[in-house]
Amino acid sequence: MKIGLLFVGQGAQYTGMGKELYEHSPKAKEIMELAGDEIKAWCFEGTKEMLRQTHITQPCIYTVTMAAYEALFEGMAKHDAALLDSIEIVGMAGFSLGEYAALTASGSISDIRKGMEIVTKRGNWMNEAGLGEDGEPRGGMVAAFGDRQSILDCVAAVKDGEILQGVNFNSPVQTVVAGEKTALERFKAEAKIRKMKAIPLSVGTAFHSEMMAPAAEKLQNYLMTCKLKAPTYKLYSNITAEDLMAGLSEKDQADEAKVSEYIADRMGQQAMSPVCWQDIIENMVKDGIECVIEIGPGSALSGMVKKIKEDLLTLHVEDMESLKHTIDLLAEHVNA
User: Fold this and answer.
1) Is 169 found in the same domain as 89?
2) Which residue, 17, 46, 140, 321, could crosslink 297 as a Cys pair with Cβ 3.0–4.6 Å?
3) Are residues 186 and 236 in contact, defined by beta-carbon separation less than 8 angstroms?
4) Residues of 9-24 as b/e, b for ≥16 C-beta within 10 angstroms?
5) Tens of pLDDT along 260-294?
């Protein structure tokens, strides 16, 4: 069976995330212990308000996601060693922050400690970029429901020189809009007039918008100092929805320094570029992927997938119940 792995992004957080896996999966516990007591406390006991803070959320979600990833493969091996031989990981994709988990799982980021270091810095810089002179968040995000062009037309009608743009193209019926608070208020009012549903998201700022330019530059410069390797799996880029490495010539892909520089450049750009999620899922299907497994807190990505490709087998892993369900269904389909 051809599998695609999906790694969750910010917004999926909740109090207690990862706790069950920590208590029942040795591999997951190992990851959570690596993260340290502070991150464990935030994941297990952090308040809703605390977990909305970007510099806290990003390392927490990354940690729980990697714990769930390790628990999945540990669980499959325990269930039936032949199960691992019966599936083929064709590709991976991560939603925004989740792209760093995908880079780690595919071997591009050397290890989980390095990944934690990267996403912690990313979270801090994105948080800083989103603050106004008063130290308060100056932007936000809204999930808008309707066809993409109608939503973008609404954005254009009320932009009025401020930052306001479509940033997450999630499904045929959902686009996330990010921008300055005043512009978002105009957008919500106009969306209501146009009979479009618009729901504010539980995030601290305007991710993937022009507002993130200072963070993108800092992140890119920092990533240039990291030794990033070519992914061992096809990794669908947030920016292009194509293979991350497709923009680098075959000759340059053999040059480790050029590979590292190229990935650093792409991941810097990612912080201020739209996420082409619908296109990613459609490309996975074109590549023959028969099942996708969402890894990390929540099941929001699974919901998006169903809006894009209703008949695609969609599973997720975030706790022991979902882990067991996923392994049982995989075994059932493989043995059918």
Assistant:
1) no
2) 17
3) no
4) bbbbbeeebbbbbbee
5) 999 999 999 999 999 999 999 999 999 999 999 99
- Count CA atoms closer than 13 A to 246's CA, side-chain side: 11
The reply to whether 322 belongs to the active site is no
Nearest to 209 by CA among 309, 263, 254, 142: 142
Active-site entry in 106, 171, 208, 316: 208
Lookup result for tokens 């516990």: 29
Give the Cα separation of 231 and 234 in Å (integer): 7
Q: Are 246 and 270 in the same domain?
A: yes
CATH number for the domain including 192?
3.30.70.250
| Alpha carbons 279 and 234: distance in angstroms, whole number | 15
Domain range for residue 57? 2-129+213-335
Structure tokens at 85: 């031989």
Quote the number of domains for the chain. 2
Q: C-alpha distances in angstroms, 6 versus 1, 100, 251?
A: 16, 11, 29
Active-site choice (96, 106, 108, 237): 96
- The 10 Å Cβ neighbour count of residue 234 is 21
Q: Are residues 113 and 148 in the same domain?
A: no
Reported pTM: 0.95
- Please indicate whether residue 208 is annotated as part of the active site: yes
Reply yes or no on whether the pLDDT at 202 is more than 80.
no
CA angle (141, 139, 143) in 5-degree steps: 10
CA angle 319, 334, 310 (to 5 degrees): 70
Report the length, in residues, of the chain.
336
Selection from 206, 95, 53 nearest residue 141 by Cα: 206
| Share of the chain residues as helix, strand and coil, in percent rounded to the nearest 5 | 55, 15, 30
Alpha-carbon distances, residue 292 vs 7, 73, 99, 158 (angstroms): 10, 15, 15, 37
8 A C-beta contact, residue 97 and residue 158:
no
